[in-house]
Amino acid sequence: MAEVITIRPFTAAAFNQYLAEHKLMTVKCTKCGGVYAPPRAICPKCHSEEMEWVEASGKGKLAGFTVIYSGPTFMVEQGFDKKNPYVSGIVELEEGTFISARITGLDISKPVEVKVGTPLMVDFVEFGEGEAKKTYLAFKA
Amino acid sequence: MPKVKSLPRGVAMVGAGMSKFGAFAEKNSRDLFVESYKAMTKSVDKGFDPSRIDAMYIGNFSSDQFEHQAHLAPILADSVGLLPIPATRVEDACASGGVALRQGVMAIASGMADVVLVGGAEKMTALNTAAVTEALATAADVPFEIPAGFTFPGFYAAMASAYMAQYGMKSEHLMNVAIKNHDNAALNPNAQFGVTIQTWMEGRVAAALKKGKPAPTWSTIWDFLHDEGGNPTIAYPLRLFDCSPVSDGAAAVLLVAEEIAHEFTDHPIHIIGSAQSSGSALHDRPSLTSIPAAKTAAANAYEMAGVTAKDIRIAEVHDCFTIAEVIASEDLGFFAPGEGFKAAEDGMTARNGAKPINTSGGLKAKGHPVGASGVAQAVEVWKQMQGQAEARQVDGDVNLALTHNVGATGSTCTVHVFERRN
Questions:
Q1: Residue A88 sits in a domain of what CATH number?
Q2: Contacts A85 to B, Cβ<8 Å
Q3: Is the pTM of this model over 0.90?
C-alpha cells in the first residue's frame, strides 16, 4: 500500500500551496518550540529536524513599512505605479515571528501618519487567471 | 559566536587605485578593471614586478545579469596580463568587494600566497533602471521577500520607518547624510556625482531657464530636497537623494605579507582586523533598526585588531541609502543606538568632525558599482592614511581606519581595520 503523505515538506512551494488555500502557515520546532515563518526544515535555535506546520492566528502588527512608487515589473502589471503606489511591510505575527507581506487598507495619502505598530489581519491577494493565478500574502489594516 | 582567531601572519596593503565611477557607455567591467589596476600599480612607491602576484580575488555581484558575462575572474586576470595565476570571483551581493578583500587577507595569512591582487568591478548601466532594480532584487530572499513587492529602496525605507518610530527621527534628518556625502564627493575627482547638492540644484535651475521653462523657485537646498520635483519620493520615507546611484566602476588593491612589505613601500598600511558575518533576511530579525551581522563583524574585527570604536579615526561605511549610514554608525559603536542621526545633524561625521565618515563621498555620491564598493572603500582609506586625499584630506594623524561593507539588507557584512605605523 502506498504511503499516505500527510506532512508537506518545509519548502517555499509548500508555503505557497498553503497560501493558495488561504492559509498562513508557520513552522514549529517540536523540540524547543521555536516558531518560524517562512518555513525552515532545521530549527536555527536547537538544530532539531523535528518540525511541524502550524497555522498562524493571522493577527499581527506593522513592524516597518514603505510606500513604493516605482515597483518591479510584476507589480506594475498588477496596476501599481507612481500615481497608484502600494505598501510593502514587515509584519510581527502574534506568534512572535516576522514576515514580509503586502499591506492593504492603510490611508497612504499621508504616509507620515501611518503608524508602526498598527494592528493587522492576514489577507490573501490573488492575481491572474486559471493556471497563472497566484496568491500573495497580504495583511490588512 | 565563533572564537576570534588572530591572523597567523601579518598582511599589509602596499598599493590601491580605482577607476572613475560613473556611467560609461563605451566601457565594460574589464576596461574599468584595467583602469583601476593601472592606478593601483602607480600607487606602489617602489614599483613591483607583476609576476610576483600569486593570486587574485575579484568582488563582482552579477556580471551575468548586468553584462551577460559570467566567469569574470580569469577574464580580468588576463586583461592585466596575470595568467596563469588562480583568479576567483567572489559574490556576496553588495559586500562582494569586502569579502574579496577578506579572501585576499586569508590567502596571505595562511601562507598560501605572499602577494595578492584584490579587485572589485561592476558594470551596471548597460541595463535600464527597471532592469537594474530587478537584478539587484535577486540579492534578497527572493521567494519570501519579493512577492511582498519589496525593492531595495523599499527594504531600507522599511528600516527607516522603524527607526523613525523608535527614535523620533524625521525623514528630513536623513538629508544631512546626503548633503555631507555630496560635499565630500565634490572634492573627489573619481566620484560619479562630484558636486554639492547646492551645485546640483543650481544646475537644475540653469537647465530649466536654458530650455525656456519656468525656473523652479528653490531658494535653499532644503527647499530643493523637500520638493517632489527636485527630490522625488522613491519608496517612502526615502527620496531620490537618499539613494546611491546605478554605477560603473572598478577598484584594486595590492596585499602582501607584512615581512616583504618594505620591498614595495616604506609606508605600508597594515590590515589588523578582518571579519565577516552572515545574517538572515530582513523579516527574520528581532529589530529593523540595527544589522546584527554588522555588529558581529565589528565586534570580531575590533577584537582581532585589539582596538575599540573610539580609536578609529575615519570610516568608510556602506551608505547604499542614507539610513544605512546612520544605522552603520551605531552598529559600529561610534554612536549609541538612536544617536546616529543626531551625530550626522551635528556635523560629527563631517570631514572636520570628531568621527569623519565617508570622506570619499560614500556609495551615495562617489557611486556604487556594487561589487567594486568594498574595495573602493579600502582605496579611500589608503589615500587618507597616506595623506594623499588632496582637498578632502582629513586633518591630523589618520593612523587607524575602518571599512564596513554590507550585502543586501545585512545578510552579509565585512569589517576591516587598517593601521599605519609610520
A1: 2.40.50.840
A2: 236
A3: yes
Residue B82's contacts (CB-CB under 8 Å, 6 or more residues apart) are: B50, B53, B56, B117
- The C-alpha of B24 sits at a distance from chain A's nearest C-alpha, in angstroms, of 25
By Cβ distance, the residue of A69, A86, A90 closest to B233 is A69
CB B271 within 8 A of CB B418: yes
Quick one: A67 and A134 in the same domain?
yes
Collect all residues from B whose CB is shorter than 8 A from any CB in A.
130, 133-134, 137, 141, 143-151, 153-155, 157-159, 161-162, 164-166, 171, 232-238, 281-285, 288
pLDDT in tens, B391-409: 999 999 999 999 999 999 9
**Is position A108 within any domain?**
yes
Contact B166, A106 (CB under 8 A): no
Closest residue on chain A to B284 (Cα): A98
What is the spatial distance between Cα B173 and Cα B237, in angstroms, rounded to a whole number? 11
B368 classed as catalytic: yes
pLDDT in tens, B49-105: 999 999 999 999 999 999 999 999 999 999 999 999 999 999 999 999 999 999 999
Give yes or no: residues A18 and A64 share one domain: no
**Half-sphere exposure (CA, 13 Å, Cβ side) for A129?**
0
Residues B153 and B181: their CA atoms lie apart, in Å, by: 18
Q: Do A88 and B165 touch (CB under 8 A)?
A: no
Low-confidence ranges of chain A (pLDDT < 70): 1-6
Residues from chain A that touch B288, judged by Cβ atoms under 8 A, are: 63-64, 90
Q: Is A88's CB within 8 Å of B161's CB?
A: no
Residue A137 lies in domain: 58-141
How far is it, in rounded angstroms, from Cα A23 to Cα A91?
16
CA angle B209, B210, B212 (to 5 degrees): 65
Residue A141 lies in a domain: yes
Three-class DSSP category at B82: coil
Cα–Cα distances (Å) from A8 to A17, A99, A124, B217, in that order, read 10, 20, 20, 61
> What residues 49-108 of chain A have any CB closer than 8 A to a CB of chain B?
63-73, 75, 80, 85-86, 88-91, 97-102, 108
